[in-house]
Amino acid sequence: MMFAAAALALLATLALALVRAVKGPTVFDRAQAANTIGTVAALLLAVIGFLTGRPDFLDLAITYGLLNLIGTVAVLKYFRYGDLGDPGDAEGETGR
Question: Distance between CA atoms of 90 and 23, rounded to whole angstroms?
């Protein structure tokens, strides 16, 4: 019963994060909301796996969480530098 309540709370959190992703005034608010959606989705996978008695869902949740982290870093790097191939501050480069 407690995990079902946790699943409902996670669904409510997911809905609120989706609203923030759509309405966010800046691109960084939207990126944070997308990261939150990914994290809540991973938690929801873990809870559903527990509710259905399928512990292999936890492996999926961990993999999804790692992909969420890598995706968020890539999107923020793209918005910062405009290119994913830019290494950032290269040696010998003066300030911008």
Answer: 36
Tell me, yes or no, if the pTM score tops 0.90: no
- Give the tokens for residue 82: 């405009």
Residue 93: alpha-carbon gap to chain centroid: 33
CB neighbour burial string for 29-45, b if at least 16 within 10 angstroms, e if fewer: ebbbbbbbbbbbbbbbb
Q: How many residues does the chain have?
A: 96
Domain regions of the chain by residue span: 2-81
Residues 37/16, Cβ–Cβ less than 8 Å: no
Taking only the tens place, the pLDDT of each residue in 58-94 is 999 999 999 999 999 888 888 888 877 766 666 655 5
